[in-house]
């Protein structure tokens, strides 16, 4: 049985120790489009050689940044073909600004498995501690596995965050590069869905798609730059649901509303009439 909730839920994966350097942060932020205006001082803050400011979304790649193999969806009680899997949602809470270089230890557990009928959703939570033992960030992630539902589990919550009924406070467009996914995969996500046309076709897509976490990082950066004066240290948390695909070379439109100490955000694809890319996006301001 590919999914056994009785075994999987609550299972804790082996702790992972890892380290990162300023060059890793620079490459990650270049892969999100930082430096597109190469003489802009605000952009160059992301690419400083000694102390680049670090977007909180770097937390999603830090532990696997140097991976060179395609990921596997293999946990206690969970064994799923990678071609069936897409990212469902991602949330990062940062407990202090992320350092430009450091060492850390992450511990992950499977917190929930939901039965959506034709698909299953596997939710994991990760706690990351710095070298001194103090918390750096906590993340919560879900994957959507097509064809793996129907095992009789709970359907899980279905929540939607309404957007204000007014024009956004900020409306940002960000072009992506045709080679954006090939660049982003250098940050450790070697899933062939983002680089191999034959694999993408077999998975049901007409061409390789942009990593959901790349879109996630691009949108976070757009919000930081537009609404937080380019200061990534003001972000306490960032969460989003992956609502649709983005193809490399398309343009992202990020609409941002200020509301009660947070930013509500919607991101869509300009070339496809603002087809949703991310939904239920919330940036919590420190």
From TrEMBL:
* CDD domains according to UniProt: HDE_HSD
Peroxisomal multifunctional enzyme type 2-like N-terminal domain sequence ranges: 18-147
Q: Which GO terms describe its biological process?
A: fatty acid beta-oxidation
List the Pfam families hit by this protein, alphabetically: MaoC_dehydratas (PF01575), MFE-2_hydrat-2_N (PF22622)
Q: For the MaoC-like domain, which residue ranges apply?
A: 164-263
Q: Name one GO molecular function term.
A: 17-beta-hydroxysteroid dehydrogenase (NAD+) activity
Return the similarity comment: Belongs to the enoyl-CoA hydratase/isomerase family.
Protein name from the UniProt record: 3-alpha,7-alpha, 12-alpha-trihydroxy-5-beta-cholest-24-enoyl-CoA hydratase
**What is the originating organism of this protein?**
Antrihabitans cavernicola
Tell me the lineage of the source organism. Bacteria, Bacillati, Actinomycetota, Actinomycetes, Mycobacteriales
């Amino acid at each position: 049985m590919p999914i056994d909730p009785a075994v999987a839920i609550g299972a804790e994966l082996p702790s992972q120790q890892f380290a990162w350097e300023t060059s890793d942060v620079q490459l990650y932020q270049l892969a999100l489009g930082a430096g597109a205006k190469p003489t802009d001082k605000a952009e160059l803050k992301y690419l400083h050689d000694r102390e680049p400011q670090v977007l909180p979304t770097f937390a999603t790649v830090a532990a696997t940044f140097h991976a060179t193999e395609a990921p596997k969806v293999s946990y206690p009680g969970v064994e799923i073909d990678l071609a069936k899997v897409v990212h469902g949602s991602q949330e990062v809470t940062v407990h202090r600004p992320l350092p430009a270089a450091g060492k850390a230890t992450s511990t992950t557990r499977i917190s929930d498995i939901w039965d959506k009928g034709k698909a299953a959703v596997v939710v994991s939570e990760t706690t990351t501690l710095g070298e001194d033992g103090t918390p750096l960030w906590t993340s919560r992630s879900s994957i959507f596995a097509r064809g793996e539902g129907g095992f009789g589990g709970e359907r899980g919550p279905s929540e939607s965050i309404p957007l204000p009924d007014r024009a956004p406070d900020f409306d940002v467009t960000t072009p992506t590069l045709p080679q954006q996914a090939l660049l982003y995969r250098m940050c450790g996500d070697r899933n062939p869905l983002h680089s191999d046309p034959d694999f993408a076709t077999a998975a049901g897509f007409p061409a390789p798609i942009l990593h959901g976490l790349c879109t996630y990082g691009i949108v976070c950066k757009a919000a930081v730059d537009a609404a937080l004066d380019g200061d990534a240290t003001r972000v306490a948390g960032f969460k989003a649901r992956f609502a649709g695909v983005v193809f490399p070379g398309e343009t992202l439109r990020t609409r941002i509303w200020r509301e009660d100490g947070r930013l509500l955000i919607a991101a869509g694809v300009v070339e496809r009439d603002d087809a949703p890319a991310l939904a239920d996006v919330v940036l919590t301001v420190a």
